[in-house]
Amino acid sequence: MSDLALVVARHRRHVVIETEDGSSHSCHSASRRIQPLPGDRVRWEPEGEGTGVVTAIEPRSTVLTRVNRRGLGQPIAANLTQLVVVVAADPEIDWLVLDHYLIAAELAGLKPAIVFNKTDLQPDVPSELQVYEKIAPVFATSTVDGHINADMLECLAGERSVLVGQSGVGKSSLLNSLLGENAQIVGELSDKLRQGRHTTTGSMLYRLDNGGELIDSPGVRQYAPFIEHENDVAGGFREFHSLTPQCRFADCRHLAEPGCAVKEGLESGVVTQRRYDNYRNLYELVAELRARREP
Q1: In the chain, how many H helices and how many E strands?
Q2: Which among 64, 27, 36, 90 has a CA at the least distance from the CA of 217?
């Protein structure tokens, strides 16, 4: 039987695994079918000094996915408990990307959280973002003035979180502030991947002093979760959950059907216009992608 190890970094076709004794090894996969992710528990066999081969992936409890360029599902990270979306006043918040991440968290069974970074540029959380406090806790912080939100640190404690967001929102600076002296681990793992220094082209798992773990992922311009069928999209909107059982039709799409409780919630303010518009947007996208897969 192969030994068990934890995947702590991935770059292209190579991963870094950490064994139970704390040693790390640069590994490749035994076949193309084996695609380990940061957070995976894997079986592996040594090949040489500090190197090895991953032979199998243990069953995953959770997995975060995205739609790739071909419209198919691509996994990003595994065995998570929490998804943390970092936003900022600069660059301007992309509300569609934010909602897509929150939907992905809801559908994957992950706790959601939002970090409003760069409060040195804008001290107050935008009122549009405060609305999201009904869906996920919102933490304001800055790495420039050294203000790391204590409530945010408590939220990260004991969780395996993935740190996501648009390019330029300050995820790397935030991560370095959270890691403190442990940031030197970044260089050590990067050497295992033969990168020489940390780059955001891969994903890496870090440990915080409070017992939490963070998986960093590259910044994105656009993100959409992979959803098999458009009828499953509504399940990603937390405020829909108490409304959908009240719809007149059990298969209500919440678009133009009469007696739709979600549309009534939109009129009463329980559902915001922006969230509903993003629901329609994602519903149409998932339907289009499904049609491509199933002509």
Answers
A1: 7, 13
A2: 64
DSSP state of 107: H
Q: Which of 267, 268, 261, 239 lies closest to 131 in space, CA to CA?
A: 239
Tokens of residue 196, six digits: 């020489």
Residue 200: its H or E element: none
**Residue 268: in which H helix or E strand, if any?**
helix 261-268
In whole angstroms, give the CA distance from residue 148 to residue 3.
Answer: 39
- Residue 171: strand, helix, or coil: helix
Run of H or E residues at 141: none
* Strand intervals (E) in the chain: 3-11, 14-19, 24-29, 41-48, 51-57, 63-67, 73-78, 82-88, 111-117, 138-140, 160-165, 203-207, 213-216
DSSP letter (8 states) at residue 220: B
Written as one string, the DSSP assignment of 42-105 is EEEEEEETTEEEEEEEPPPS-EEEEE-TTS-EEEEEES-SEEEEEEESSSPP-HHHHHHHHHHH
The answer to whether 25 and 209 are in contact (CB under 8 A) is no
Q: Are 54 and 30 in contact (CB under 8 A)?
A: yes
Output the six-digit token pair for 233: 């999209």
Closest CA to 142 of 113, 173, 112, 114: 173
Q: For the chain, 295 residues long, give each residue's pLDDT as a single digit of tens.
A: 579 999 999 987 899 999 999 999 999 999 999 999 999 999 999 998 889 999 999 999 999 999 998 899 999 999 999 999 999 999 999 999 999 999 999 999 999 999 999 999 999 999 999 999 999 999 999 988 777 889 999 999 999 999 999 999 999 889 989 987 665 555 555 555 544 333 445 788 999 999 999 998 877 778 999 999 999 999 999 999 999 999 999 999 999 999 999 999 999 999 999 999 999 999 999 999 999 988 7
